[in-house]
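Could someone model flavin-adenine dinucleotide with this protein?
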Amino acid sequence: MKATAVQYRRPESVDEAFKMADAFSSARFMSGGQSLMPMMNLRLTMNDAVVDISRLPKLRESRESNGQLYVGAGITHAMIEDGKIDDCTAGFMRHVAGGIAYRSVRNRGTIGGSLVQSDPAADWPTALLALDATVVIQSASGERQTPLTDFQVGLMETSLVDGELLQGVLIPVYSSTMRWSYMKFCRKVGEFGHSIAAIVLDTERGFARAVLGAAADKPCILPRVSDALVRGTAQSSGEEKLLAQIEEDLKELTTHDADSYEFHLHRTMVSRAVTEVLRK
Ligand SMILES: Cc1cc2nc3c(=O)[nH]c(=O)nc-3n(C[C@H](O)[C@H](O)[C@H](O)COP(=O)(O)OP(=O)(O)OC[C@H]3O[C@@H](n4cnc5c(N)ncnc54)[C@H](O)[C@@H]3O)c2cc1C
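Reply:
Sure, complex below.
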């Protein structure tokens, strides 16, 4: 199948992007086009215009200030993989970026496009939730910030409203004690995950977050596992207790039966991630 006829526009600035989008009844911003183009070709989305924001310098900025790393929405997976932005995550972001699809997708696909697409099996929605990121959203009338927990609403759904654009992501700068684990299970290298367990542990900051992706309509924080990590009981209480906590979290957050393949897969990914993060 082919996409319906669309108008193509390429603005020189974010302001111009808003004006161009405003001139159509159903314009869509396009970053890397790696999700939007297949969806248009399959006619899962039909728009009268595409506003190509992939070359806007403002969306390609990255900087560290006030204890936060800002990553522009237009930064590609490949730029992160290649270490072209500062890394306050002890290599976590580079690792995640390098495992997305294959290089040609990573050359064009962006961190912002991935977050707006909000596929629960995609990498950035899970990884950035584990990193406790905040998104920066821009509209013609100004800027607002919202934690990723509020931005991810459901299956391929975010809290962005018409006339808003994702400008970038803010990630806390972690201490030198920061440890992470990222377990992505897929049958073929570069596929979307069938299960993703991401853990960030920073004992100096008293922060721990375990997140499971590809298990529900959006990535979910595992409260008991996170709590056990931050309190140190994941280390001291033994494997049996930890597995019980993982299972309780999974029962609460997913709809899979406890004896299903999926439940077993998610439990395995989370328990491997905990083991790895504690070993580091
Ligand atoms: C073969 C293949 C394999 C893949 N495998 C993986 C994988 O293993 N893991 C993974 O995580 N992803 C995977 N992807 C998806 C890939 O990472 C995409 O790049 C990403 O999901 C979307 O980013 P994009 O920049 O291409 O966004 P686009 O396709 O341009 O846009 C996606 C959506 O976001 C909107 N949008 C884009 N940017 C903005 C913005 N700044 N503000 C507001 N709205 C915006 C668009 O309107 C559209 O609705 C794969 C894609 C392909 C084609």
